[in-house]
Design brief:
Structural class: alpha+beta
CATH superfamily of the largest domain: Bira Bifunctional Protein, Domain 2
Number of strands: 17
Strand order of the largest sheet: 1-10-11-12-15-9-8-4
Largest sheet: 8 strands, mixed
CATH class of the largest domain: Alpha Beta
Radius of gyration: 27 Å
CATH architecture of the largest domain: 2-Layer Sandwich
Helix content: 40-55%
CATH topology of the largest domain: BirA Bifunctional Protein, domain 2
Number of helices: 14
């Protein structure tokens, strides 16, 4: 959530930043916030004046009585003031809630290094790593390979759950688990604490984590309960310290979240949906950091290095892009996507690294203080980055490491997690 003080004091800068997103609705929301915040402040001032008058008039009546003056006008005023105050209190609450709701609909302010653009085609490639495989045979996609090796079953999964689900069988399930364990071990060595979060969240904290009006389209709600299945462990980790003040000496807090992720994936028409790439359920290891505002841009680069080092260890060709203003989403001030090479020659996104600055923390009311016993000094900054989304990385391993005989070479760093298996192959 944006700082209302910033909007009051420098609405021009906020407007110019929002205009980069090329969404006229956001400017309408900003104008609404400005208009109704002014109305709220006027009502709030009148309410305080009326409360003050209520306290003053009793003293005034006592003094006038003592002096033998006529107090009929003052008595009438004391009879009218409670009703006026009640009406003003109701109006103040209504206006304050209207402003809050519209503030929740405004995105984060973009960092100056975010490239201007309309959609993902305008994202700017920063670098590439790894050798693109060259095959002396016609490469297959991962679904063809996995079906031929009988390591995946989509038909039986569809029979019991519908489309977008799979049974991962035997060595493929081991590969999924190996990627999780390898990434967890890697991140723990770099100072991240492992967290297995709740897999469901209530609406109130979810509204603090993300723009629920937009995200609700891809989330599963528990019928009859104020609970949603999480779309990523980022979300419960972000809300972990909701309404708390963290002492500066405890920052940064680095977390490594492990969870299944549940997504409807509504609106994926026109996107790449083959096989394991876009599923309703998958596993992910997530990096998350709470830090002091002065440190968040250093942490952003650290998170990116972690992801790239993981892919280097796996030996997978990838690229990094700086996500443009039209593709970045609501929460991030700046975002890098890591895209991995697939056998059709395309790079596709397997991870996103976002510096959310104080945007999430302000919505969730997560602050820091300089020392014990002192008041809060400000809001922490939050950052998140995919450690590994196993389904998409399995695609890359299978398609980049496929062999002419239909087998798949397992990256060396994963073999110790798979009982020494070196290849996925026919039994």
């Amino acid at each position: 959530m944006l700082d209302i003080k910033l909007i009051r004091e420098d609405s021009k800068t906020v407007r110019e930043n929002l205009e980069k997103r090329q969404n006229p609705e956001l400017i309408k929301r900003l104008d609404y916030v400005i208009k109704f915040d002014k109305a709220w402040r006027d009502v709030f001032q009148e309410l305080n004046s009326s409360r003050k008058r209520k306290n003053e008039i009793n003293l005034e009546i006592a003094k006038m009585k003592k002096e033998g003056q006529d107090i009929r006008d003052q008595i009438r005023e004391t009879q009218q003031l409670p009703k006026k105050i009640k009406e003003l209190e109701e109006k103040e609450i209504e206006l304050r809630e209207n402003v809050r709701k519209k503030l929740l609909g405004l995105p984060n302010l973009l960092h100056g290094t975010v490239p201007f653009g309309k959609d993902e085609k305008d994202n700017i490639e920063i670098r590439r790593w790894g050798k693109i495989p060259k095959f002396d045979f016609k490469p297959k996609n991962h679904q063809e390979i996995l079906e031929s090796l009988e390591l995946i079953d989509s038909e039986r999964a569809a029979k019991i759950s519908g489309m977008g689900f799979f049974f991962e069988i035997d060595e493929l399930a081991l590969l999924d688990l190996a990627l999780q364990r390898f990434t967890i071990d890697f991140l723990r060595k770099r100072g991240f604490a492992l967290v297995i979060p709740p897999y469901m969240m209530r609406r109130e904290p979810y509204e603090g984590v993300t723009d629920l009006e937009d995200f609700e389209n891809v989330m599963y709600k528990i019928e009859g309960e104020d609970l949603y299945l999480i779309a990523t462990s980022e979300h419960p980790m972000a809300a972990m310290f909701m309404d708390e003040v963290i002492e500066k000496d405890y920052l940064p807090i680095k977390l490594c979240g492990l969870s299944p992720c549940f997504r409807k994936e509504i609106g994926s028409h026109g996107k790449y949906t083959k096989g394991l790439f876009r599923m309703h359920q998958f596993h992910k290891v997530e990096q998350f950091i709470f830090c002091h505002p002065d440190d968040s841009w250093i942490m952003h680069e650290e998170l990116q290095k972690n992801t790239e080092d993981i892919f280097k260890e796996l030996g997978l060709a990838y690229r990094v892009v700086n996500v443009c203003t039209g593709d970045i989403g609501v929460i991030a001030s700046k975002k890098y996507d890591t895209d991995i090479w697939m056998a059709d020659g395309e790079f596709r996104e397997v991870g996103s690294n976002s510096n959310c600055t104080d945007f999430q923390a302000r919505r969730l009311n997560i602050k820091f203080k300089e020392k014990e016993g002192q008041p809060a000094a400000g809001f922490v900054h939050t950052l998140n980055n995919t450690g590994i989304a196993t389904s998409r990385v399995m695609i890359a391993i299978i398609e980049q490491n496929q062999q002419k005989d239909g087998s798949v070479v397992i990256p060396k760093v994963l073999r110790s997690y798979m009982d020494g298996i070196e290849k996925l192959g026919k039994k």
